[in-house]
Specification:
With 96 residues, the protein is of the alpha+beta class. It has two domains: 1-36; 52-92. Helix content is 32%, strand content 27%. It has a four-stranded antiparallel beta sheet with strand order 1-2-3-4, with no helix packed on it. It is elongated.
């Protein structure tokens, strides 16, 4: 019975020490902080009146928006996410 008491005490101390170490690691990472992030200040993206964004895709240096126009046509807009500038637009047409 005495060995069981010692084992329970040792495991309790190990749990408390592990919890304390976890708190120290979390506090250290929070105090160090990550790289400073610049505020996102890109130009607004102009969409035609009545158009809506159906889907978006992102690459390393491109944002592609699939736009549904009010007349039912579709257009892909390629945008530079860093600056917000429109790089190009590709009209999509279905063939009859």
């Amino acid at each position: 019975m005495r060995a069981l008491k010692i084992l329970v005490i040792v495991m309790g101390v190990m749990i408390l020490a592990g919890f304390a170490a976890l708190i120290v690691v979390i506090a250290g990472r929070l105090s160090r902080g990550g790289p400073a992030t610049a505020p996102f200040a890109a130009a607004p993206i102009e969409l035609p009146a009545g158009a809506r964004i159906e889907t978006m895709g992102i690459g390393t240096d491109r944002l592609v928006l699939d736009i549904l126009l009010p007349d039912g046509d579709r257009r892909l807009m390629i945008i530079d996410p860093a600056s917000g500038h429109l790089l190009g637009a590709i009209p999509l047409r279905s063939t009859p």
